[in-house]
Amino acid sequence: MTKKRITEQLLERFYEHLRQEEKSGNTIEKYLRDVRAFAAYLDGRQISKAEVIAYKSKLLAENYAARSINSMLASLNSFFVFCDWTDCKVKSIKLQQQVYCTEEKELTKAEYQRLIQTASKKGKERLNLLIQTICGTGIRISELQYITVEAVRRGEACVSLKGKTRTVFIVKELQKKLIQYAREQEIITGAIFITRNGKPMSRTNIWREMKGLCEEAGVNPEKVFPHNLRHLFARTFYGIEKDIAKLADILGHSSINTTRIYIITTGDEHRRRMESMRLII
Fold it and tell me: CA–CA separation, 151 vs 172, rounded Å?
């Protein structure tokens, strides 16, 4: 019977498999990180379904969020399928559809505007426009590379990610701002959001720069990260259009169930809607 152990050679083969599957760089990195974390937990022990279940229980006991645990298990299950160890696969934690999110996590439009004003006040024009671009188009931070001089001039970017291609429209006001910025920075072609060395901005640097605005803007740092701008775009669009299928297409989601997470309102707003029903006489 073949022993089931995680080796560097096996991880290298898994890495190549994920590349052939055209997974994004961030997805590949996450899968490998999750598998390595499980390998560290095993500490040399052979893999079995019992060990995977025990690992799942350990994560629960350490108060990891159920969604985070499911994400880790999805990485492990993908690895097990690749290795033909399907007998080691485990079920994810069942989650009830969330009706509302906590207000502490939701970035409001007013807070977004304060972040923009603060970035402008501090002379951080690149950060100012980067925040407006993500929030004004709904793109992922990994898709900023497709916001090029050529795309801005056309008023639309062709985004290709996770094996899918979609068109992202750039509204006229943002188009004007980005063209002016590119002209001032003497960026003639290619990506607009680049470092002084001409390289794409890293996720870590963007995150750090955004956090640097929080204190002066009076915004809770826990709310300020690039993906929350995408959520604000989704909630604002849905509030106007009420078309979740169209929103899913715009965001590049394969499943409407993913899009539902983006348009969850706060508990206070949910409570106000219930009270407006006036069913208690």
Answer: 12
